[in-house]
Amino acid sequence: MRILKTFILALLILRSFVAFSQDPDAPLITYVSVNHSTQQVDINWVNTTTDVVGYVIYFQDISGLWIPLDTIMGINNTNYSTQNANPQQKIETFSVVAFDALGNSSVRSDSHSTVFLHYDYENCDTILQLNWNSYLNMYGMDGYQLKITREDLLSGIPFPEQTIAISQTDSSYDFPIEYSSKYILWLETISPVNYISKSNILEIVTTDIDVPMYSYINRVSVVGENSIEVSVLSNSEDLSHVNIYKSNLENGFQFFLGKANLTNDEFTTIDPLVLPERNVYYYKSKPVDICGKEYKLPQFSGITDTSVAYNLKLTPLSVTKESISVECGKYDNFISSSHIELWKEVNGEKSYLQDAYPDMQYDVPIRSDVGKVCVYLLSTENLNNSLNRKDSVLSNKVCISKSPLLFIPKAFTPQNQDLKNNEWKVVVYGENAIQNYSLKIYTRFGEAIFETNSIHEAWDGTINNSLAPDGVYIYSIQIDYAQGEQLHEGGSIMLFR
Predict the structure, then answer these.
(1) Residue 57 belongs to some domain of the structure
(2) Which of 30, 35, 192 is nearest to 110 (CA)?
(3) Which of 9, 266, 438, 497 has the most neighbouring CB atoms within 10 Å?
């Protein structure tokens, strides 16, 4: 009987305890954070109820439903690391429920979501647009700090870690970037109680633009009386053009000349406003990529600084029909050793005279030359350079026009008994200076009776194979000289028998 009374009393006490027990308080999540080592999510919380024996971790699926993820036993086990989360690709949201030994459970805690950092970027952007979701429900949160590391891929040099403070209300940031760099970025929350939530890591490599390693002016060559061609070599496949700057002084102000565009393997442009016989002009090259970025080069250790070059000048000292006296300028813009040669050109035919040297004077005899006679300089690299090229440039030309001498007979006696002076033709001294020749002979009444384009062909004094009568005939001569000049001359011929 006593045992039965004791059992009934125990039941009454147990019923009383169950009736007055309370559900545990919801845990307080301090932070959820992306673990950069495991690429999973670390969840940390604080318990406020003494009789808790464990916790249930929940995550929110894509449809918004709360799914139990795992159960943690032990009142002091207040942190958890996920195994199958994907914070690098999306936002992960979690909540925690506490339970006691009697099976009583708390309500779900306030949810906390990982910060998902993502970006917008295209090849030619100089700004990296960062975006993220706001971190909610963190106690005492003061804002974010953006962590950035950068490595220059050309030099391999890493830059110190950079920290940028960002307001709590912001969810985007425009970050300026450099080409050919590797960036690692992430966000961290700022809290006075040292609660830190880290976002996912972004790793961005800006190598879409092939950065040129050198900009080499391989040729500054005079191509006309008032024209200089500037040619540039660069090793990038992503160049749009090369900007060319010009100065009249070696260290003077440089103004923009124009764009050198790609032709074959060279970027070339023509400077049409020069007086190369009088002046030396200095040119500087700066390549521009397809995104419009201009580079100051060279940076290539195998090439000296040839981003600045000038024209080879031949200075006239005296020009006569007997000789041309000149002074040789210098040209040291090549990336390898070179030499200078003095050349002569007569009516387009070129001939080597001798090697020349800067600041030396040379006298070129031209007494026997007829037509357009010029002297000029040719500078050439001695051997193939480090780019496997052997470039050359031309100076300005110093020229004189020496027209051929013409002897035009006034009369002739064809079919005469003395057998002399039977033909009429123009005698030319210096015929190699003539490009085109035209002779026409007319009667006094304007009838054409003879025509030739050869300076060696003569009129024999016949008309349609019959002897022409004595009298006056009219000739017309037109000559195009090699130096670009023209001659138009007409007159009369006396024919005697």
Answers:
(1) yes
(2) 30
(3) 266
